[in-house]
Specification:
heterodimer; A: mainly alpha; two-stranded antiparallel sheet; 5 helices; B: alpha/beta; Hypothetical Protein Ychn, Chain: A; 5-stranded parallel beta sheet; 6 helices
């Protein structure tokens, strides 16, 4: 389905995950973050950059991997992206929802 | 208050310390937090071993009385069989990025899962608070645990 995000037509899943990464840019990230009551700081961006790099390298993401990334520990990850951190962070980063349980 | 049936909090009671049960409990608690659901674990009876500093690194899977092991019960009872099955399972778990019990507890605690020990079971096994992991949030009675779970959208699970 299509959704207007930051004044652009973006294709997303029903849950709001972007399906075409080429449509992603930083204004869209800011808009999705705002929808989730998050204002992106430089700390958020460090994590988002890491997540996007791992995704591009086809490394499957998990809470454990994030904790071992050296970029952020699990506690801070939950503080930066409250509620469902991995889901919210990947959504803002414009990459598909992860399907693992751990 | 609107209640659309959403799960807001999972209260999980772990009463066993066989590896497969401990992992089931931990995966469910971690999975809840990953979805933005609160989670608390109450360790009671043998479940206490999963938070006992000297025991949690040595938990085994059950080879006897477990039909899904697909081995004759008498074989499962042979010396070393549990250890063998356990080490095989641990290898498979590492492959799917599953942490060991101690690391899993650290992850749960950092993720905001509350970890409680059962007072009655601690008295029964003569465990002291110092015997248990430092991530433990406290020692509770059953009544305390129910109080923790009050509110709309709380679900309880016994393992």
């Amino acid at each position: 389905m299509d959704k207007m995000i930051a004044g652009k037509t973006i294709s997303v899943t029903e849950e709001g995950f972007m399906t075409d990464f080429t449509q992603w840019d930083k204004t869209i990230a800011d808009a999705i973050a705002a929808e989730n009551s998050i204002t992106l700081t430089s700390r958020h961006w460090e994590v988002l950059d890491y997540i996007q790099t791992e995704y591009k390298n086809e490394v499957p993401l998990s809470i454990r991997k994030i904790g071992k990334s050296g970029v952020v520990d699990i506690k801070e990850f939950y503080q930066l992206f409250p509620m469902a951190p991995l889901k919210t962070a990947t959504k803002i980063a414009g990459i598909p929802k992860k399907v693992s349980c751990i | 208050m609107e209640d659309n049936g959403t799960i807001k909090k999972m209260m999980i009671i772990l009463s066993k310390a066989t590896l497969e049960n401990v992992y089931a409990c931990f995966v469910l608690a971690n999975g809840a937090r990953m979805e933005g659901i609160e989670a608390e674990i109450f360790f009671t009876f043998f479940g206490l071993e999963a938070v006992h500093n000297k025991k949690l690194d040595h938990l085994h899977i059950a080879t006897v009385g477990n039909p899904a092991m697909h081995m004759p019960t008498m074989l499962g009872g042979l010396p070393g069989m549990e250890a063998l099955a356990t080490s095989m399972m641990k290898k498979e778990m590492e492959k799917i990025d599953m942490p060991d019990v101690r690391e899993f507890i650290e992850i749960l605690s950092a993720s905001g899962v509350k970890l409680w020990a059962c007072k009655l079971a601690m008295d029964m096994f003569h465990y002291k608070k110092e015997d248990l992991i430092e991530e433990l949030d406290g020692v509770l009675t059953v009544g305390d645990f129910y109080k923790q779970g009050s509110g709309v959208g709380t679900h309880m699970l016994f393992i």
